Amino acid sequence: MVFDPIYLVLMVPAMVLMFLAQARIKGTYHRYSQIPSSLGMTGAEVAQTILAKKGINQVRVEPVAGELSDHYDPGAKTVRLSQAIYESSSLAAAAVAAHECGHVLQDVQGYQFMNLRAALVPTVNLGSNLGPILIMAGLFLNWLNLAWLGVGLFSAVLVFHLVTLPVEFDASSRALRLVDELGILQGEENKGARAVLNAAALTYVATAFYAFLNLLYYVVLINRRR
Ligand SMILES: [Zn+2]
To answer: Distance from the CA of 16 to the center of ligand 1, in angstroms?
Structure first.
């Protein structure tokens, strides 16, 4: 499959884009994790301050293992910050912590794209696992309806990544407003936070683009059989 020219034309650029986006977020994150904010609040303090100022008492903030493993768990009502973000008072830490609080606000306010994204998760798990199996089995058995069924299931992956975009962009724009309005970051520091969150946003765009090209690749594979 790797030597298939269509695979090379579609999937290699997608992988390169993913790689570049990952390299960019790592670089940007590294750069701004070296710059302390003038107020010196840690990621944990940033998150706790935002939640307190917004009157959100039911959400906990705790550290979690791993790098860039930061997330908000709506089920457990917990913001989990990677150890480095939790403890650091850098611009990057403030940006990431505020971004996760952006997701908390989405949850509290019933932001529709977030609900839609959560509702898609079971279908995505099924589609990403079973979809390619059905496609390959359909191609192998020359039973194209089965392959198309696989494409239908796999398209849920693309929908999921497309719905992820407004969720992430919205969380970041909320984060940037919050750190500015609450005075957590001052003046030029806001630009650093913006750079970190923009680089993170690019990884979501690259992932959606990858999912699109992956789906297109399967469609081309099946169409070739006709
Ligand atoms: Zn996010």
So the answer is: 23
Q: Which residues contact 114 (CB under 8 A, 6 or more apart)?
A: 74, 103, 106, 107, 167
Query: Residue 167 Cα, ligand 1 centroid: separation in angstroms?
Result: 7
Which one-letter DSSP state was computed for residue 63?
Answer: E
What confidence tens digit (pLDDT) does each residue in 31-54 have? Answer: 999 999 999 999 999 999 999 999
Å from CA of 99 to ligand 1 middle: 6
Which residue matches tokens 């839609």? 116
pLDDT recorded at residue 7: 83
For the entire predicted model, the pTM comes to: 0.91
Amino acid at 209: F
Domain residues of the chain, as ranges? 5-223
Q: Which one, of 49, 107, 115, lies nearest residue 78 by Cα?
A: 107
- Of the CA atoms within 13 Å of residue 140, those in its CB half-sphere come to 6
208 contacts 165 by C-beta, under 8 angstroms: yes
Catalytic residue IDs: 100
Parallel, antiparallel, or unpaired: how do β-strands 60-64 and 71-73 relate? unpaired
CB within 8 A of 127, min separation 6: which ones? Answer: 153, 154, 155, 156, 157
Q: Give dist(CA 79, CA 44) in Å, integer.
A: 9
